[in-house]
From TrEMBL:
Cellular component terms (Gene Ontology): catalytic step 2 spliceosome; precatalytic spliceosome; Prp19 complex
Organism name: Seriola dumerili
WD repeat windows: 198-239, 240-281, 282-323, 324-365, 407-447
Source species, domain of life: Eukaryota
PROSITE patterns: WD_REPEATS_1, WD_REPEATS_2, WD_REPEATS_REGION
Repeat as UniProt keyword: yes
Matching Pfam families: WD40 (PF00400)
Keywords: Repeat, WD repeat
Gene Ontology biological process terms in this record: mRNA splicing, via spliceosome
InterPro entries noted in UniProt: Prp46/PLRG1-like, WD40/YVTN_repeat-like_dom_sf, WD40_PAC1, WD40_repeat_CS, WD40_repeat_dom_sf, WD40_rpt
Assembly, per entry: Identified in the spliceosome C complex. Component of the PRP19-CDC5L splicing complex composed of a core complex comprising a homotetramer of PRPF19, CDC5L, PLRG1 and BCAS2, and at least three less stably associated proteins CTNNBL1, CWC15 and HSPA8. Interacts (via its WD40 repeat domain) directly with CDC5L (via its C-terminal); the interaction is required for mRNA splicing but not for spliceosome assembly. Component of the minor spliceosome, which splices U12-type introns. Within this complex, interacts with CRIPT. Also interacts directly in the complex with BCAS2 and PRPF19.
Protein name: Pleiotropic regulator 1
Function (record text): Involved in pre-mRNA splicing as component of the spliceosome. Component of the PRP19-CDC5L complex that forms an integral part of the spliceosome and is required for activating pre-mRNA splicing. As a component of the minor spliceosome, involved in the splicing of U12-type introns in pre-mRNAs.
Amino acid sequence: MSEDVQKHSVHTLVFRSLKRTHDMFVSDHAKSIALDDESHKVKMDVKLKAEYGAVLHMPVLKECKDRVSLLSGSMQSHQSYTQPDDPEYLITGTHAYPSGPGVALTTDTKMHRNPSDGGIHSMALALPPSQARQDASRTAASVGDIHRHAGGIERSHPHSTAVSLMEGGGTRNSALMRKAPTMPKPQWHPPWKLFRVISGHLGWVRSIAVEPGNQWFVTGSADRTIKIWDLASGKLKLSLTGHISTVRGVAVSSRSPYLFSCGEDKQVKCWDLEYNKVIRHYHGHLSAVYDLDLHPTIDVLVTCSRDATARVWDIRTKANVHTLTGHTNTVATVRCQAAEPQIITGSHDSTIRLWDLIAGKTRATLTNHKKSVRTLVMHPRQYTFASGSADNIKQWMFPDGNFIQNLSGHNAIINTLAVNSDGVLVSGADNGTIHMWDWRTGYNFQRIHAAVQPGSLDSESGIFACLFDHSESRLITAEADKTIKVYKEDDTATEESHPINWKPEILKRKRF
């Protein structure tokens, strides 16, 4: 009971103290503080010296004299800033005061008239290059120079002549006008042409991987099979069955004879290619697994799923090392590299995340895209990468994901990107179009829309995956018409026969 009384009494005392404080000040809150002449004078002196010290020695214009007279009392206390004896100066024009402190006005320059706009333009155009360079090197022209040039040129060139000089005097004007930034000329790349069409799958072909020896490649399909094809001839070598739904991702290890696959059946499988059997399953994802990638230097597999997570697996022990959470929608694509950041993911929540593999946490989140990010690709030589979305293809710089530029023009849902060492970036879209880009400049040098397989609907022309082989001389695409198409460079093409239809447009690199 005593504790309750003690608490209540302290509470009451506090509020009483607050009330006394409030009553003390409430009556004065609207009253302004009385002006102190001495303080005001000190304040104005400090303000004059700090803000207007550089121009106090200059003459006062007639129209401002009344305003300045209010401050004259403060100025009289400082002898170094006293007004000149003759306050009747009236200077108008392009330069209303001398060119620097301590330069006195002469009788000729006390009064002068304003040159017209035409006179100013014609003066700028009529200056010889040497004179333009001299004038550019000066800090400021004197009033006499301006008066002399403006008056003389205006008399010799009327307004109409000045306009004609502006229209026709490009060479003279080039030194004075700032040149607009232009897009650098893109590197020439030979065009690509369709080389082979491979049929055999009974459903959409969703994924591709090329083995390290460049002898064969693997495809995963909506017909629930994985097929291995000879790269040189395009003939089927082997079919692997075991998934019970669409195979969305395949990867071939360069460190062991293993093939990894994932699918919409939530399964991640490891196949031993010596026995063509599944030897490991990686259980943990709660929904369809959309993509996977192998770490290039350590025995780690990374998968991403519709459950909005990416998971890091130890290949040998099947242990789930990390579950990378943070995305708020399907994680559609994942890429690994040896350097930091070692894992990059793109999601349908329109963000890209760069991950710290050791901590299992996000290093950076890139929010520039406005639509789902369905594909990522890393440049094989540069420390850069690109992301594909329905709004744009964007290029980024590692390690922090600094934005480089937009590649605009592929107006479709972009499902896949591939890039080779020569700087050819390929984007494949839902409407069956393939665009070829110059990586450095973002110039779109070729567009391909291959015909669908006979018997297929025109709507079944989507590109789901594309990949360069290890020689980078062939491009393999996986398509919705159940075919695999192989493209190669046109060996007969030259820069003369296929010139770059390039125009040095003003560079547009939007920062969003």
